[in-house]
Design a protein that fits this description.
The protein is of the alpha+beta class and 290 residues long. Helix content is 34%, strand content 25%. Strands 4-5-10-6-7 form a five-stranded antiparallel sheet. Strands 11-12-13-14 form a four-stranded antiparallel sheet, sandwiched between helices. Helix 10 (227-233) packs antiparallel against helix 11 (239-252).
């Protein structure tokens, strides 16, 4: 490992000022669960790391606003989110998802902002957050902006963030009548990277699906909305419609072969898991518990 310097700013604004938009070897580090592995393997060789561990505590808080909007500071550890009553009451699918995300050692250290900024397509939270309509507040040297999580990921390990921008906050809108589920298929163990992740969120009133979001990940180069399947679900929730939606999802998803399985295998997984995720949401709405 080549020598590098570490800066420890006391504010997120100061941290942003220490980043260099022209130098990819200068990078912020929060929990470091992914970045340190990249450094040890030689994939990334920094000249300077900007540590975020001393940044003001306002960016490590979880707040639910009066309108039901959930705000999670980017430096909040994933385990804190996992055990937060506010998150459980506002968006329980996030809590359920975190219980199977990696392992407890990683969740104790990894942060929300770092998790999203890393942009590994196998991660569990991004498809869930996209299905929930979440967005991030991004801080730059002289500006702030909001980016929908759906638009945050622009490619394989790529985000829409500039090199001198940092995620400051995750914002999950009030869900009200929306129910959501996340299912994943792993090839070895429950805490392994999934071969496929499917998030489904349905807004149902009076038995009718008013809005649907279906998101695939892990098998795809980046989290991907399956819009054709979403449109089909607006027609109803009969078995025939669910089958059509699952077929459309498998047809639309641009999956990639890797050591988790072939593209043909993952296409089959998409068809199966999209229907399973939708049915899980429908059961939750019905309250059958089956």
């Amino acid at each position: 490992m080549v020598p590098f310097t570490i800066a420890e700013p006391r504010s997120l604004r100061e941290a942003v000022s220490l980043l260099d938009p022209e130098d990819h070897t200068v990078r912020a580090i929060a929990g470091g669960t992914a970045l340190t592995l990249m450094m040890k393997s030689g994939v990334f060789q920094p000249t300077r790391l900007v540590s975020l561990r001393r940044v003001e505590p306002a960016f490590s808080q979880i707040v639910v606003r009066d309108d039901g909007e959930l705000r999670i500071g980017a430096l909040t550890p994933l385990s804190t989110v996992e055990y937060s009553p506010s998150v459980l009451n506002t968006a329980p699918v996030i809590t359920r998802t975190l219980r199977t995300l990696s392992n407890v050692r990683v969740r104790n250290v990894a942060t929300v902002g770092g998790h999203l900024a890393h942009a590994d397509p196998h991660m569990d939270l991004p498809p869930v957050l996209i299905a929930l309509g979440a967005r991030v507040r991004v801080m730059g040297p002289s500006h702030e902006r909001e980016v929908a999580v759906e638009r945050l990921f622009v490619g394989y390990y790529e985000t829409a963030l500039a090199r001198n921008e940092l995620i400051a906050e995750l914002i999950v809108p009030a869900q009200r009548g929306t129910r959501a589920a996340y299912l994943k298929c792993t090839t070895r163990s429950a805490d392994d990277w999934p071969a496929l992740g499917i998030a489904a969120a349905l807004d149902i009133k009076g038995g009718a699906i008013r809005d649907a979001k279906i998101v695939a990940s892990a098998a795809t180069p980046q989290p991907t909305r399956l819009r054709t399947a979403e449109a089909i679900l607006l027609e109803g929730s009969s078995d025939a419609i669910l089958h059509r939606a699952a077929d459309a999802a498998a047809e639309q998803a641009e999956v990639m072969s890797d050591h988790h399985g072939s593209a043909a295998y993952k296409k089959r997984l998409v068809r199966i898991y999209v229907e399973r995720a939708i049915r899980e949401v429908l059961r939750a709405v019905d309250g059958s518990g089956k």
